[in-house]
Every structure is written in C-alpha cells, then in structure tokens.
Amino acid sequence: MIHEAEILSQRRLAPDIYRLELFAPRVAEQAQPGQFLMVRTSISLDPFLRRPLSVNAVDRRRGAVALLYRVVGRGTRLLAERKLGKRLNVVGPLGRGFTVPLSGPVVLVAGGLGIAPLFFLAEVCRQRGNEVILFYGARSQEELVLRRELESLGIKVFWATDDGSLGERGTVVELLKKKGLPPAAPVYAAGPPPMLKALAAALKDMGREAEFSLEERMGCGVGACRGCAVKVREGKDFVYRRVCADGPVFKAGEVVWE
User: Fold this and answer.
1) DSSP 25-90
2) Which residues bind FAD (predicted)?
C-alpha cells in the first residue's frame, strides 16, 4: 500500500492549480473512482503530515495515475516544485469510493477542484457506455480546468462561473436547479462544503438522493487519528464517521450539514 511513484509530468493548469501524473502501476490497477492517495510532499519528514489527493484519472495500460491539486500552503508548494523523474512516496488507494452505475445516464456536479474525483468517475462511466451529464462551476473561467479533456470524453457539460466569464453567471447549484435533472439518473457531487450543503438542500427539495465526496483535513488517512470525523445520521441518532476510512463518499441525505 506504500508506493514509490515516479513523477511523469507536472502541469500548471491555472494559477496555483496543478495536475501531477505518476508512474504507479499497482495504484493504477487498484484505484476506483472516489478514492484518494496520501502523498508525502517533500523528500524529508518536513512537513510531517501527508496530503490527501483524490485520484483524478487512471491509465492502467501505462500504469499512470493523475492527481489534481491546488497550492494552498507549504506542503502543496513543495509538491509543485518536485521535478520530473523524481519519486514521491504515496499511500493508497484509500477510502470508499463512488458506487459506479452499470448502465443509464449519470449526473455529476463539480464545484472548483471537486472535478478531481469526478473526472475519474466520468472516465469510467464513459468506458461502460453511460451517458454523462456534468454541471461544473468555479469562481472564474480559468479555474474551470480540464475542459479539453472533458470534451474528449464526449460528455455534456453545463458551465457556471461566479463572474460570468464562462457559462451561466452564478453557482453550479443555481445552474442545476435551472436546468433540472433527468428522471432517475443517479447524482454524484464533489466540491467545497458550502456548495455541497446547498446542493443537498436542493436535491432534498427535488426528492433526489446523491453520493457526495467530502473534503476534510486528514492526519493519517487510514482512520486511526479520527481527525476527519463528520456527523452523520444513523436511524434516529447521530454518529461520527471518518471521512478517510468510512468515506470520503457518503450519501447526501445522511450528512448533517452544520
């Protein structure tokens, strides 16, 4: 489960947003949409904690795995400085991923870097012959990354930006409510907590359930430290579940949004 992965490419997609491709055949063979890797970002133990990064794409033939991330602090800044041919120490794939449908249309809702796990899900669904409809929103056009790659998948995309620079002006949740959903199509979403909270409320009003990939800070990535616990409903009670080990994918209706 611990791998020394060679860096195959490091692409800057937008200010502070990078796509990293690794040669990691065992990870590529095992990874499922919605799972993640815990990545050591430097060659030393400083920073001590690994960073959780969703598996963004897999090429099993080449043994390659892509990760999408934003530079937000020292750890990810160090990761962005890592050079081609160098090796990264990674743990995974980890977590419980999405329930991939066998057939029929699917709806994906991505906010910002929520596209990271959903792109992998879209790839797998298209390989199975599913029709894929994506609602994708961000603050501006330049943060709507992987547009060319999404186009190559042959999926239908509805765009939303806060500043109106591409697609509808407003949030991706507002866009979804405007366009509506195909009947009975399963819904999958990933993005920042405020977006997921708003989407959960909208889907509840529509009488629809969904699977959400949650974002939380993680310490260990394997459930030992319990630093990423979230409150969920269990029958009439509330319990805490670990995003890393029990998730990161949960049903939208079971998460307690506070």
Assistant:
1) HHHHHH--TT-EEEE--SSSSSS-S-EEEEEEEEETTTTEEEEEEE--SHHHHHHHTPPTT-EEEE
2) 51-54, 68-70, 75-76
Residues that constitute the known binding site for [2Fe-2S] cluster: 220, 225, 228, 244
- Is the residue at 201 inside a domain? yes
Give residue-wise pLDDT tens across range 47-106.
888 899 999 999 999 999 999 999 998 889 999 898 888 899 999 899 999 998 888 899
How does residue 155 score in pLDDT terms, banded at 50, 70 and 90?
A: very high
Q: Which residues are annotated as a binding site for FAD?
A: 51-54, 68-70, 75-76
Is the model's pLDDT at 222 over the cut of 90?
no
What does the block give as tokens for 85?
Answer: 């041919």
Average pLDDT over residues 170-186: 94
Is residue 197 situated within a structural domain? yes
Binding residues: 51-54, 68-70, 75-76, 220, 225, 228, 244
Q: Assess if residue 15 is contained within a domain.
A: yes
Residue 68 and residue 166 in one domain: no
